[in-house]
Specification:
alpha/beta, about 450 residues, disordered C terminus, eight-stranded mixed β-sheet, Arylsulfatase, C-terminal domain, about 30% helix
């Protein structure tokens, strides 16, 4: 009896800690526009809501908080993914582009690391050390041996975009398989009285032609006359929403709704529709980096809004705060800061990052020339490296970035440019360099995958 009693005493604190710390389910979609859901992402911007039916994400938004100014760390895939894993900006990580470099331009693009280093501490490492069960399902796309080499107990392996194409109806791009694996992991972890962290890096919206046949048929009727890509994207988006619903149903079925945070965001933007957001994937205009961003969980008021600017790498310290991990024990170099207080305080307050400004660095060609952006308050400056010019926008009045204020407000333009240069130097960012073999008589057109859309033109997807 004495042995049994002692054993019970040893177990009680472990169970108590697990019960006190919330579970975390983080869902990351791929190439999804800010207005790509049937959920308005800004209460005062009519174009922030799309015409694709996403009822489960509508439900998630109604139960949680929408961030109208939620940003992916990068305008392309892999840099965002390594940033989310490490809490650092792509500029600091030296991974700022996913696709191979383009050649023949006035500037030569910098080289990327192309694989997460073994010495990087990931959110999986930190949470697993703190006693969480950890799983990563779906697209990894940052190499380094895959998730199980970087803090995850379970995963689908060292996967990339190719993983999407093998899965078709009735399991388009493995949406429903991923949802089922997540549900099984939740159940197993709950039975073991362990809090869990699951990252669902959905393959969708890649391989959109693999959408379920019934969903494709629906949008062929609904979007009759639209191009095929638009139809298949709509269909895979609705299939993805169905997968999100399956995950939410599993959380409810297991009785975990009151102890589980659910976060939904995209890895990069994909344009913003006619006359709403400029740019798209591969550019740090709003259409390339502003994304759907929704959080539901304990203490979050249903159907609430936050207009404070947040970025994906804020999630690393947020998850750690929820897990009761002391801030002083986090890895060095974390650039984000917890948004937990915003969630508790009905969206009010600020995010106290190490740097007040937010910087997005894309020293590459992908629909635009190499450029960077810096946010401070409601002002946003873009700097272009080919001709060394700056543009300035007031996002409080001009979310579509149509009215360049640089000439009208030279002092603020100069101040922001100096802060941009200072930040990029501090993180040892990489820059494009002059191409000695550039022939201006034989210009090479950038690939049409992003770039600024002039007023009145639809955003590029």
């Amino acid at each position: 009896m004495r042995v049994l009693f002692a054993t019970c005493l040893l177990l009680l604190p472990t169970v108590g800690v697990a019960a006190e710390r919330p579970n975390i389910v983080f869902m990351l979609s791929d190439d999804q526009a800010w207005n790509g859901l049937s959920v308005a992402m800004h209460p005062n911007v009519a174009g922030s809501k799309g015409d694709i039916h996403t009822p489960n994400l509508e439900k998630l938004a109604a139960q949680g908080m929408r961030f109208s100014a939620g940003y992916a760390p990068a305008s392309v895939c892999s840099p965002t993914r390594i940033s989310l894993m490490t809490g650092k900006s792509p500029a600091a990580l030296h991974w700022t582009k996913a696709a191979p470099p383009e050649t023949g331009h006035k500037l030569i693009e910098p080289r990327n690391i192309r694989s997460i280093p073994a010495n990087e501490t990931t959110i999986g490492d930190v949470l697993r050390k703190a006693g969480y069960a950890t799983a990563h399902y779906g697209k990894w796309h940052i190499s380094g041996g895959g998730p199980e080499k970087h803090g995850f107990d379970e995963s689908d392996g060292d996967t990339g975009n190719e993983n999407a194409y093998q899965f078709k109806d009735p399991n388009p791009v493995d949406i429903f398989g991923m949802a089922d694996r997540a549900a099984a992991f939740m159940e197993k972890s709950s039975k073991a009285t362990k809090p869990f962290f699951i990252q669902l890096s959905w393959n969708a919206l890649h391989a959109s032609e693999n959408a379920n046949q019934a969903t494709l048929a629906k949008y062929e009727r609904q979007l009759n006359g639209e191009n095929r890509k638009r139809i298949t994207t709509a269909a895979i988006t609705e299939d993805l929403d169905t997968g999100v619903g399956r995950v939410m149903d599993a959380i409810e079925r297991l009785g975990l709704t009151g102890t589980t945070y659910v976060i939904y965001m995209a890895d990069n933007g994909a344009g913003g529709g006619k006359k709403v957001l400029a740019g798209g994937k591969g550019g740090v205009w709003e259409g390339g980096i502003r994304v759907p961003f929704i959080v539901r969980g304990p203490g979050v008021r249903p159907n609430s809004w936050c207009h404070t600017r947040v970025v994906g790498y804020d999630l690393f310290p947020t998850f750690c705060e929820w897990a009761a991990i002391a801030p002083g024990t986090l890895p060095k170099g974390i650039e984000g800061s917890s948004i937990a207080s915003l969630l508790k305080n009905d969206g009010r307050g600020d995010v106290k990052r190490p740097c007040e400004e937010l910087v997005f660095h894309f020293p590459h060609y992908q629909g635009d020339t190499p450029h960077s952006a810096i946010f401070l308050g409601e002002l946003k400056l873009l700097h272009f490296y080919e001709d060394n010019h700056d543009e300035l926008y007031d996002l409080s009045k001009d979310i579509g970035e149509r009215n360049d204020l640089a000439a009208q407000r030279p002092a603020e333009t100069k101040k922001l440019r100096e802060r941009l240069d200072k930040y990029l130097a501090a993180v040892d960012a990489q820059f494009p360099t002059p191409n000695p073999n550039f022939d201006p008589n034989q210009p090479v057109e950038p690939k049409k995958r992003g770039g600024k859309n002039k007023p009145g033109k639809p955003a590029t997807n």
